[in-house]
Amino acid sequence: MPQKWMKSIKLMLLPALFLLTLAGCGSPSVGDTYPLESVSSKDQGQTSRVYRAENKSVPVVAKELADQNTPDEISKEDSQHMFLIYPNEVYHLQQDAAKPSDTLIEIDTKEYVRNNYDSSFLQGYILASVLDDLFDGHKKSYKGSYRGYSSKDIYKPSGTYHVPTAEEKKAAPPVTTSGKGSIIKRGSTAKNSDSSVGSDGNILKKQVEPSKSSSGKIIRNSSSSSSSSSSSVAPKRSSIFSSPKSNSPPRTKTGGFGRITKRR
Question: What positions belong to coiled-coil segments (predicted)?
Fold first, then answer.
């Protein structure tokens, strides 16, 4: 009896342990982990959001973010500034000058970086090849002097930061540019039209055209009496074969032994 109870308890605990494992595997986003502190938004995709990680150093926060979402490039470990480069955003981690125990997480769109940051400042943290790609190979044409949110009062960006509104706090960061996708039908010619899509545009409802190949014929055997089977079907015979044997009654011979033989 105790063994049965132990098996029942184990079976009940397994689903709970599985759910706890799944809960621990999820990687929360920056907005779910850290509070949003400031927002700067302009036209042409220039957006910057700043979050605060309390009582965490820059290298510690950088490792946490890199473990959650592997960046394309990450700068060398530094206690004051570190950069994580993603396909559409740049994460600038910086020590808060007013509260050195905290780390400010600034998430900038690449357009914001191009139009605001001082390229010479970025050269000390980002590889030259990555920097050329970030600025499209024209660093000299960008004359920004910005060096991050922690020094915004000294090196002012072209836009202004403000306390986020309730709507901005609800928005999931980072902001991405919306686009439109399209599905096109495979090209076809007049001789070979694509009928893989239904008339209502549903690809699951294919239009099947009847086969245009030559069709065969079936004929029924003629029958001389009603007793013969009238539903038998036979293929059409070619002219090179002999005609079927007659089904007429066998002939008899007179003056013999009275035997009945079939005609050969």
Answer: none
Tell me the three state secondary structure of residue 103. strand
Q: Which two tokens stand for residue 189?
A: 């010619």
Report which of 37, 30, 39, 40 is spatially closest to residue 115, judged by C-alpha positions.
40
Dist. CA 142–CA 118, nearest whole Å: 8
Domain that holds residue 153: 30-165
* Cβ neighbour number for residue 31 with a 10 Å cutoff: 17
Spatial neighbors of 208 by CB under 8 A, at least 6 apart, are 195
189 assigned to some structural domain: no
Task: Please count the other Cβ atoms lying within 10 Å of the Cβ belonging to residue 35.
Answer: 11
pLDDT digit string, tens, across residues 196-205: 445 555 544 5
Where does residue 42 rank: exposed (0-12), middle (13-18), buried (19+ CB within 10 A)?
middle
Residue 232 lies in a domain: no
Answer whether residue 253 is part of any domain. Answer: no
Model pTM score: 0.56
Residue-wise pLDDT for 169-208, tens only, equals 877 544 333 444 444 444 444 444 444 445 555 544 545 4
Question: Residue 131 in contact with residue 122, Cβ under 8 Å?
Answer: yes
Whether residue 50 is contained in a domain is answered as yes
Half-sphere exposure of 218 (CA within 13 A, CB side): 5
For residues 38 and 256, give the distance between their C-alpha atoms in angstroms, rounded to a whole number: 126
The total of structural domains in the chain comes to 1
C-alpha 108/C-alpha 195 separation (Å) is 48
